[in-house]
Amino acid sequence: MKLSERYTRTIDWFKQNMPKAETELHYSNAFELLVAVILSAQCTDKRVNQVTPALFKRFPDARTMANGSVEEIFELIKSCSFPNNKAAHLHGMAQMLTYRFDSTVPDNLEQLQQLPGVGRKTANVILSVVFNKPALAVDTHVFRVSARIGLTVNARRPIDTERQLVENIAPELLPIAHHWLILHGRYVCTARKPKCAECGLAHFCVYFENNGTK
Q1: What is the per-residue pLDDT across 157-197, written as a single tens digit (0 to 9) for each?
Q2: What residues contact 167, with CB distance under 8 A and at least 6 apart?
Q3: Active site residue: 57, 102, 139, 214, which one?
Q4: Over 70: is that where the pLDDT of 214 sits?
Q5: Is 2 a catalytic residue?
Q6: Each residue of 86-97: pLDDT tens digit?
Q7: Which fold has domain 3-21+136-211?
Q8: What is the dihedral of CA 102, 106, 111, 115, to 10 degrees?
Q9: Residue extents of the structural domains in the chain
Q10: Which of 45, 46, 57, 121 is an active site residue?
């Protein structure tokens, strides 16, 4: 099967079977999503959603968080993974957002990546989810699922996956494609025991063809 056909069939399947796909993180504005995505690194969305209500009640905006302390942020997020690092990142991010960006979350990759705790993946989430820009964040699910289906070839790093997906998916579909792949990886194409028997993509999936998983 040609790569172009694999992309067409994959996109068509998702359009039909997952017409609505969005982040499972709870947020009400760009600042809250930025905080939630920073917290979600190596942590489940479910856990983050348990932590953020109290965090946002105490720190409803960047300026409030910037004027708070790392110690207080830590106490509110300590059930997340790596709370020490994340507390420091959140405080530093809030300070930079307040004093360099006038409390406004930037809408471009370069400025977002200047914020403490914000790498390319987090920046791309903000660009696609908040600003609906043609960006595609690559997490472990996107990386794994893209390779298994055969959408990417010899992609050894997340940036390789991102480049191949962006090259082959229409710009207007990139924001939702990010969620298609994440949700498929979270609930169907799981890391250890992919549910190939339940997968509508199995009949043209490279992983299924090579492993014969039933």
Answers
A1: 999 999 999 999 999 999 999 999 999 999 999 999 999 99
A2: none
A3: 139
A4: no
A5: no
A6: 999 999 999 999
A7: Endonuclease Iii, domain 2 (1.10.1670)
A8: 70
A9: 3-21+136-211, 30-129
A10: 121
